[in-house]
Structures are given as structure tokens and as C-alpha cells.
Amino acid sequence: MRAAVRPVRNIITAFRHQTSSYSGAVIRRRSHLIGSNASSVYRLPGDAEIHRFLFPAIFVSKAFSTDTAAKVNISEVNRAGPLVEYERRIAAGELVDGDACQVGTLRELQRLYDEIVESADACRLDRYAVPEKTVRNQWFWSRLMPQSSYSPVKGLYLYGGVGTGKTMLMDLFFDQLPGNWRKKRIHFHDFMLNVHSRLQRHKGVADPLEVVAGEISDEAILLCLDEFMVTDVADALILNRLFRHLFSNGVILVATSNRAPDNLYEGGLQRDLFLPFIATLKERCVAHEIGSAVDYRKLTSAEQGFYFIGKDLSGILEQKFQQLIGEHVASPQVVEVVMGRTLQVRARLLICIQYRYQLIDLSFFFSCDQVPFGANGCAYFSFEELCDKPLGAADYFGLCKNFHTLALEGVPKFGLHNRTAAYRFVTLVDVMYENRSRLLCTAEGSPQELFENIVTVSDAQQMAPRTSSRSRRNDDSDLCVDNELGFAKDRTISRLTEMNSKEYLEQHAEERQLSQEVANADAVQA
């Protein structure tokens, strides 16, 4: 079985290296590395002016910069693991030499890789070495004879600024692990949606969290969570018990985050009940900070982006949208979400949520002159429809599952008056980025300008006082002081920048072409 799995795994790994070159920050060298800055201005009748938001056209590897080159000793790569793959990609010209912060993180990942490989049998990682009966009845026997089996290997919690390559480094580590291991790589949003869905299925059980943890650990002993961020009180209250069960079942956690462990869920409701989870996390994981101050996402070119700045630009956005759908006609769509729900977009402007056997009409949420519609894998929405309504990550995952491109009209500047909408917009961008979706949008300002009134407590304390209290009230009336949103905005700005870059859009086009070829081949075989 292992002999059969290995060549398949090699093919999958090679495919990932080819199709995920940009998302993993693997950008091939080109003869022209630096181009000039570019921007375009579209003028409409009257005084309307559209600024097509573009970024500096600098072609640099997202993961490694030539400015701060750092070498890896040959003795460090005489074994398998992420450092070996890193050196291979440099030798192949797929990467330039990395900065010291990222190479230091690679060494931590290599250390973890070596420990896991050495303790693979003790960690029960090989899915084929675990008898099916043992896996199926593990929870049953644990109820009769409670026992803990903590992994002999501690996990790794990577944290640092946005765009520093955390996700790329974790993916590099994950891809080097054997394909027959019980491992899983998932975005934290998606992971928690899955947890809540499982909890729904196990209602009535004495301890549903223990059952859910047993199911998760049966599927994956090595759990890699990207963008670990706690903002929801429902998540905060169950994380400690959930992960205590997971760690007790031998799960090894590798996570990336913008926040240090001690700063997770800072200022959140009932945080005192969340603090035990921080202690558990620090006990079972080594915390490592990526100290790089460079946001590599902002060093990409963006000569073909779809981010338009200005007001009353629905005509331009609709024109771009029509170009993308071509000869296809926009029609009603049904979007599957989680826990038995479907989001339906009907021809007569009826939008409803179907939960199990009940159909709840939500059409009163939507104005008749702003109608969502879709065709050819593209969907068109107003900002209000996606971010001013009670939608969440589950709904956005459903959209991205059905549509590879979203057109979003009228993104406003954020502040105290629309803080909730700002949170939803951050979640939407996170989900789209994770799914490598394409975004077309019109906005009142650049990504930086959209969030200029969102600040952390520390930022607010450092702001210079106004000369008069009246002028301060007038200037700061919409200032939103929110630690979680203040930290999340940097990630959103960085991701919007990358999603508008030439490299990101080229990768999106390549993936769409590959998907279409696969679909055509399946149709021929059928």
C-alpha cells in the first residue's frame, strides 16, 4: 500500500508546487525584476473620477527577499524536511535566498519535522498502521477506561506580522510529510465551522466536545491551523475543553497567527474563561515569533487589478462583470452552506435560508434595486447584501465553493458606525483569500484608507491630542477603538493588496483553466 501511495503523493506534491507557486510564495526568477509604479485614472462625464487602485510593480518573492539574504548550512540539509525543499527550490531558481527571520523559522519547522519523524510510531501517525476497529471504537473504550495519551512531541505556534510568510512556511512543512500520515491542514475559520457542525450532530450526548475531539483526532493526529484568530465568544468558550481533549488524544498542533498567545481574544467577552486555553496552548506548543517587518504581499505588481476607487461606479463594475461572464446569462443560484442550510437567489428577488425543512424568507433584507446574480462562476453583490446582513464565514465559504469570482459594489470606509460590517468584510476577505478567489470591487478609498479610522487601544493612546476638545470630537467622532479589528485590518489590507496583484490574478486564471480542462476531460469520459 505504501508503495502505491508514494508515487501518487509525489505527483500531488509536484502539482502543488506548480499551481501554488504564488500562494506559497514560490515565484520564479525573471529577467525583469523591477518595473515602474503604475496607476490609471478613468474619467466619466461630469466631475466623477475613478482611480484604479494599483500597487508598486515590483516583482519579488513573497517568501524571501534578496535584500537580507540568509544561507543555510549544507549540514542542515543532509536529511529530509522543509529545509531540504527550501534548498532544492533555491537551486532550481524557484526561490531567491531568504531573510534571516524566515530561515530561523524554517529551522524550527525542521526541528519539529525531525522530532515527529523520529516519534512517528509513538504518535500513531501512519493511518494504515492503526487498525480500523481501534479507530472506530476508540471513543467507546475511552469512556469505559479513561486515559490520556499526550504526544511525546510538542507542536509549534508561529506568530508575527502580516505578509511575513507564515502560511507559506507552514505549507512547506506540511507538504514534506508522508501522505499516509494522519494529517490535516485547514483554515481556522473552516475548522471552527466544522466543529460547530459536528456539535450539532451530537446534541444530547453527555459531552459532545469529547466526541467531536475523538472524531477529529481519529482523522488527523497532526493538525495544521492557518490564521488562528479568536473573535467569537462561542468559539472562545469551547476552545479550552476542545483542545484539552485533542491534546489528550495525542494531537500535535501547528498554527499560524498574527497574535502572540497571550494576546489572543484580547478584550473579548468573558475572557477570563478563555485564559485557561492560553495556558494549555503554551504548554503543548512552542511559540515562535517571525520577526520580519517586511510585508511581501505589498511587493507585487498590480497592473491588471480590479480595485476601483470612487463613488457611483456601478456601471464600470457591471461592465467588467459582463466581460467576465461573456455570453453566459446571469441566472438564479443556490449556494450550499453548512448545517443543512442553503442560500438561494431567486429570479423574483426572493432570497431565503432553508434550514432543515423550514424555508425562512429573508427577502425583506434586500433592496429591490440591488440584486445578487451570477453566471459562469461569477457572482455580483452590493456591499450591503454581503456585509450589512446577518451572514458569516459559513455563508462566505458557501459562496466561494460555488463562485470563483465575486464582484462587490460600494465598499465604504469603516469606523464606529459600521464596525460590525467591517468585521464581516474582514471575514469575507479571509475566506476569499483562503479559497484563492478573485475579487472585483468599487470602494470609497484604498485598502489603507478604508481602515484609517480603525485603531487599537495602543494606537489610540499614542494619537496626538487636538488643540481643542471640540475639534477632537468632530475629527474622531467615527474613530473605532477595537483591538481585534485593529490587528485584523493589517491582514485585510495586505491580502487585498495581494489579491489585486498581477501574480495572484495570473495564478487564478491558470487554476481556472486547469479546472476547466479537468471538467472537460470528465465530460468526455462520461
TrEMBL record:
- Kindly give the SUPFAM superfamilies that the UniProt entry links to this protein: P-loop containing nucleoside triphosphate hydrolases
As one GO molecular function, the record gives: ATP binding
Q: Which Gene3D superfamilies match?
A: P-loop containing nucleotide triphosphate hydrolases
Q: Give me the segments passing through the membrane.
A: none
Query: What InterPro entries does this protein map onto?
Result: ATPase_AFG1-like, P-loop_NTPase
The UniProt keywords, alphabetically, are: ATP-binding, Nucleotide-binding
Instruction: Tell me the Pfam families matching this sequence.
Output: AFG1_ATPase
Mention any one GO cellular component term assigned to this protein in its UniProt record.
mitochondrion
Family in the record: Belongs to the AFG1 ATPase family.
Entry-linked NCBIfam families: ZapE
Q: What is this protein called?
A: AFG1-like ATPase family protein isoform 2
Organism of derivation? Theobroma cacao (Cacao)
